[in-house]
Amino acid sequence: MGVLNANKKIDVSQIDCEGTMRVTLAFSADPDISSNPTDIVLVLDRSGSMSGSPLANLKLGAKTFIDIIDEATDSSKDGNIGSGSRIGIVSFSEQATDNTQLITSVAALKAAVDGLAAGGSTNHADAFTKAIGLFDPASPNGKVIVMFTDGKTTSGPPPAPVAAAAKAAGIVIYCIGLVGTDGVDVGTLNEWATDPDASHVAVTPDAADLEDLFADLAVNISKPGATQIVIDEEVNHDFSIVSVSPPDKGSAAALDAHRIQWKIDELGVTGNEGAALEFFVRHTGSTGGTKLVNKSVVYSDAEGNVVVFPDPTVRVDCDIVYTPERCPVPVDITVGNCQDSLLVDLGDTYLESLGRIVQLDVTVKNVCPNRRVALAVILTEVDANGMEYQRGMKAITIPAHSYPTCRDILVKCVKFVLPEDLDVSGGSPRSLCGPRNLKVRLIAHNIDTDYRCCEAVVTV
Predict the structure, then answer these.
(1) Structure pTM?
(2) Residue 393 near residue 449, CB atoms below 8 Å
(3) Domains along the chain?
(4) What is the pLDDT of residue 198?
(5) How many CA atoms lie within 13 A of 379 on its CB side?
(6) For residues 360-392, b (16+ Cβ closer than 10 Å) or e, as one string?
């Protein structure tokens, strides 16, 4: 069957600016369907939420799946599932129906798919029960269930025990989820599917992707198990690899801060096998936003299986940082070869480096979007009698931000120069060793406002 499913997922949807997340690469493989006959039951959700284009796309996907298996089993798209393999159709809403038994007629299978109509609630337990009932326990054929659903269970008993019984009987379960009007609980699909769940579950929010999902699964089912597997993963350069856990198959190593290579000698050659690799990455970029985790994932094997991993994204939440005073621009100088000394005229400089420098950070709370803020920082020095002396005042305009909600804004590196000849705190004049007693006051207000005064109206 080749590589049946490939997945890449992360354990969180949002991280802080320097946050860490777990990334999982997973896929599974089975032997060649032409030499290892397999019975496949397509279990298709026809509940009310599938009305319209979702059901139309599901039908296209299911029929494409049947065509690919048809050609793969006997090297001919002749309308007949060959080499001893068979396909059955089960559909379900509040109850499940055997639309066909395990048969080989492509025309009959497609007719059953075309006859599906949407309506009713969602009973996954009955769907699994009907699918299991199609298999002959005495048959040596491999047994596969492909469960498709667009919603959560809304009727019938809990389906998890039924799915567990199927897996215990040697049935391999794949789950395809469409995020429909009822939503899809990915954790529940993982529970139903064969382990590793990351390689047996695929979810899409777009019904138009269903045909591709069914086609990819059918193409890979038709190929033999994979050998000489190499996966080269490169993460987005806003992330760095922190650690790589030993995979359950093969070996993996970080080549540098952004690249991992995973090698497996063989997978799924004699029976269904899954493989998973976990590694941890940390965000090292300076800006936030929604970001792709991986730059690329390249798969290769000796059989030429085509494997495409998803591109998960994560929301990175970085604080707004505004730096009103930048560091001084350096002057570059070079001492030439065999030159013992160098005389350089650096030009003018400013007096802010004399005495001591007080550098302050302050967070302005709850700044609403599209509002500039005026910030005043007032510094005084206190003598032994409690008298205050002005030492400086900074007036700063904080630019407006465009986040959808009010945010805290960190204002960094507000600097004041304290010449030592102004020391009134009681230390030695022009000495850096005495204490300086200071007070800081802050004033902040919005510059922009929607408020307008009412115009006076005089009536004669």
Answers:
(1) 0.49
(2) no
(3) 11-27+226-318 (2.60.40.680), 33-222 (3.40.50.410), 321-325+354-446 (no CATH)
(4) 65
(5) 17
(6) eebebeebeeebebebebbbbbeeeeeeeeebe
For 160, the token pair is 């998890």
Cα(428)–Cα(420) distance, integer angstroms: 9
Task: Report how far apart, in Å, the C-alpha atoms of 338 and of each of 332, 334, 341 are.
Answer: 19, 12, 9
Report which of 151, 94, 156, 158 is spatially closest to residue 121, judged by C-alpha positions: 94
Q: Which distant-in-sequence residues (6+ apart) come within 8 Å of 216 by Cβ?
A: 306, 308
Rounded to whole angstroms, the Cα distance separating 120 from 155 reads 10
Q: Select the highest-mean-pLDDT range: 191-200, 224-233, 408-417.
A: 408-417
**Identity of the amino acid at 276:** A
d(CA 240, CA 283): 6
Strand-pairing partners, residue 296, are 234
In the chain, what's the furthest Cα-to-Cα distance?
Answer: 103
Please report the DSSP string for 193-232 in residue order: SPSSGGGTEEEES-GGGHHHHHHHHHHHHTSPPEEEEEEE
CA dihedral 380, 382, 385, 389 (to 10 degrees): -30
Determine the average pLDDT of the residues in 300-321.
Answer: 85
Q: Which two tokens stand for residue 121?
A: 């609630």
